[in-house]
């Protein structure tokens, strides 16, 4: 059964997938001197994890904008969550293409 909680978990999982395969990942990777704290070592693993987390969070936030607008315009919570998941999936598919 599709519930808002299940849609949220699917949306977060989709955003995490986008954080690992997005074409913006190398851009964020090369900007690590700007966002990586000095107390962390700049190893490949730490930089990849941080860049992936930044891209995943950006995907989650960007895909939430159409859902928030649609909910404000009167869609139910179920439909707004479907919009959120659909937008996140669209961003993943755009990154793959």
What can you see in these coordinates?
The chain has 97 residues and is mostly helical. The chain has helices at 4-21, 25-30, 32-35, 44-72, 77-96. The two termini are 31 Å apart. The model has no long low-confidence stretch (mean pLDDT 94).
What attributes does this structure have?
97 residues, mainly alpha, 5 helices, 79% helix, 0% strand
Outline of the structure:
By secondary structure, the protein is mainly α.
Task: Give the SSE map.
Layout: H1 4-21, H2 25-30, H3 32-35, H4 44-72, H5 77-96
Structural class: mainly alpha
**What's the average pLDDT?**
94
* Total count of helical runs of at least 4 residues: 5
Low-confidence stretches: none
Q: Please write the string of helix (H) and strand (E) elements.
A: HHHHH
Q: Specify Rg, calculated over alpha carbons.
A: 15 Å
Q: Count every beta strand, where a strand is a DSSP E run of 2 or more residues.
A: 0
The portion of residues assigned to helices is over 70%
């Amino acid at each position: 059964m599709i519930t808002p909680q299940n849609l949220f978990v699917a949306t977060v999982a989709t955003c995490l997938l986008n954080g690992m395969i997005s074409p913006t990942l190398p851009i964020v990777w090369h900007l690590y001197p700007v966002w990586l704290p000095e107390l962390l070592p700049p190893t490949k693993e730490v930089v990849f994890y941080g860049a992936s987390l930044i891209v995943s969070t950006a995907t989650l936030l960007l895909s939430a904008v159409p859902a928030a607008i649609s909910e404000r315009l009167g869609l139910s919570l179920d439909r707004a969550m479907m919009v959120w998941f659909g937008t996140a999936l669209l961003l993943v598919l755009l990154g793959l293409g």
